[in-house]
Design brief:
Elements lengths: L27 H35 L7 H12 L13 H31 L15
Length: about 140
């Protein structure tokens, strides 16, 4: 029994009759998709960061953390800056309830803003399903 040789592959150099074409394509679709994903990731990160800072502030107030502590001061200042003006919206009798409602509402609004922005960027910045790819072929 003799083993038969393997059939030639499509680009086998032993068969020079076939021409190998090297082509470079530039597809703007891939670059655009990558850019949209990066922008959406940044939007999600920033809005989630703001919501988390507001939630940490709520927890610190509810747990009666020392307001003179450096970390608590930083979180309180940051939360005040990103509260979207909600810090005086509700005026219940308890200060803890006021912080919970006001900063909790701001955190929820930040998450909604992030979701809406991601949707809008994806909706209007992504190319549609019917796209054409144009490229130039160079034969060497």
């Amino acid at each position: 029994m003799t083993a038969e040789p393997d059939p030639p592959t499509r680009y086998d150099p032993a068969y020079p009759s076939e021409e190998v074409v090297h082509e470079r394509t530039e597809d703007s679709y891939a670059g655009r998709v990558r850019a949209v994903r990066v922008v959406n990731s940044v939007i999600r990160f920033v809005t989630a960061l703001f919501a988390v800072v507001l939630a940490i502030h709520i927890v610190l107030v509810l747990a009666e953390a020392n307001p003179d502590n450096g970390f608590a001061e930083f979180i309180s200042g940051f939360a005040g800056a990103v509260s979207l003006g909600f810090d005086g919206l509700f005026n219940p009798d308890s200060e803890k309830a006021a912080v919970l409602f006001n900063y909790g509402a701001a955190a929820i609004v930040w998450l909604l803003i992030g979701t809406a922005l991601v949707y809008l960027v994806r909706k209007f910045a992504m190319p549609g399903p019917n796209r054409t790819v144009s490229y130039r072929r160079t034969v060497r």
